[in-house]
Design a protein that fits this description.
164 residues; alpha/beta; TIM Barrel; four-stranded parallel sheet; 8 helices
């Protein structure tokens, strides 16, 4: 989210009588090549330039702490790290520094596509690979995980103990 956006949303919600509505901020959204499949599906790839002006530099893990702190100060109830799998270190860093705030991690379309391609080629077992990826995100510190695998996971949650 852009600086000041959480504050503007919080103030607008409060003015409209929705002070009990929670805000999940895209606090640490990195400029990532892993958004490609979504952008292609939604026909939302930039026509010119790029989106790096409001997305974070993948080389800078500590900038996430500054962005998360600003969003919390502006009224965010949940903070998010996006993408998830390649930013497990950032998830851990955010959770260690802000343990009292719920932390969401977004396993984005490219992470989904990468796993799905390996699964479709027979290189990975789908259930094991998907669950292992989600367990890693949770182990890093995410309280919530947003994933394209959500419907699949619901269908084999009862098998987790047997798989591992």
């Amino acid at each position: 989210m852009m600086d000041g956006q959480v504050k503007a949303i919080r103030e607008a919600l409060d003015r409209a009588g929705f002070s009990d509505v929670i805000i999940m901020a895209y606090s640490a959204k990195y400029a990532s090549s892993f958004y490609g499949p979504f952008r292609e599906a939604a026909a939302s790839a930039p026509k010119f330039g790029d989106r790096r002006s409001y997305q974070m530099d993948p080389r800078n893990a500590h900038e996430a702490l500054k962005e998360v702190a600003m969003d919390i100060n502006e009224g965010a109830d949940i903070v998010m790290v996006k993408p998830a799998m390649l930013y497990l270190d950032v998830i851990r860093l955010v959770k260690q520094n802000f343990p009292e705030v719920p932390l969401a991690a977004y396993q984005v379309s490219g992470e989904y596509a990468m796993l799905k391609a390996a699964i479709m080629n027979g290189w990975l077992d789908e259930k094991k690979a998907v669950l292992e990826s989600l367990i890693a995100i949770r182990r890093a510190g995410a309280d919530l995980i947003i994933t394209y695998f959500a419907k699949d996971v619901v269908n084999y949650l009862d098998e987790i103990e047997r798989l591992f």
